[in-house]
């Protein structure tokens, strides 16, 4: 997660926030607005449903299964318009 956080925060105008547990992630979603939520491979389908329910209509929920930093960036950019990043 430290690598993902570093990759996210290496882009100008992007601010990545990491949650290491389901509870921590849902708590953060409850209090703040995000452009996107990145769900990594360890998140279950049941938990994904909970994250989608907790996210606002403006928040894109993205599944990320790994790969290089270019893939991660492209996944985020394709889900969220560049004007909001």
Features:
85 residues; mainly alpha; two-stranded parallel ribbon; 46% helix
Q: How is this structure best summarized?
A:
With 85 residues, the chain is mainly alpha-helical. The chain has helices spanning 2-9, 22-31, 45-54, 69-79, and strands at 36-39, 60-63.
Structure notes:
- The protein has 85 residues and is mainly alpha-helical.
- Helix content is 46%, strand content 9%.
- It contains four helices and two strands; from the N terminus they run ααβαβα.
- It has helices at residues 2-9, 22-31, 45-54, 69-79; strands at residues 36-39, 60-63.
- It has a two-stranded parallel sheet.
- It is globular and about 30 Å long.
- The two termini are 20 Å apart.
- 7% of the residues are buried.
- The mean pLDDT is 85.
Please tally the β strands and state the result: 2
Beta-strand fraction estimate: 5-15%
Helix proportion of residues, in percent?
Answer: 40-55%
Spatial gap, N to C terminus: 20 Å
Indicate the low-confidence ranges by residue numbers.
Answer: none
Report the order of strands and helices.
HHEHEH
How are the SSEs ordered, and which strands pair?
Layout (H helix, E strand, L loop, with lengths): L1 H8 L12 H10 L4 E4 L5 H10 L5 E4 L5 H11 L6
Parallel strand pairs: 1-2
Helix pairs in contact: 2-3
């Amino acid at each position: 997660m430290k690598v993902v956080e570093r990759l996210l925060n290496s882009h100008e105008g992007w601010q990545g926030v990491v949650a290491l547990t389901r509870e921590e992630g849902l708590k953060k979603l409850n209090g703040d607005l995000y452009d996107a939520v990145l769900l990594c491979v360890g998140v279950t389908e049941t938990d994904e449903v909970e994250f989608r329910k907790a996210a606002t209509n403006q928040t894109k929920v993205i599944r990320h299964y790994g790969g290089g930093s270019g893939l991660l960036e492209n996944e985020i950019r394709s889900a969220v318009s560049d004007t909001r990043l």
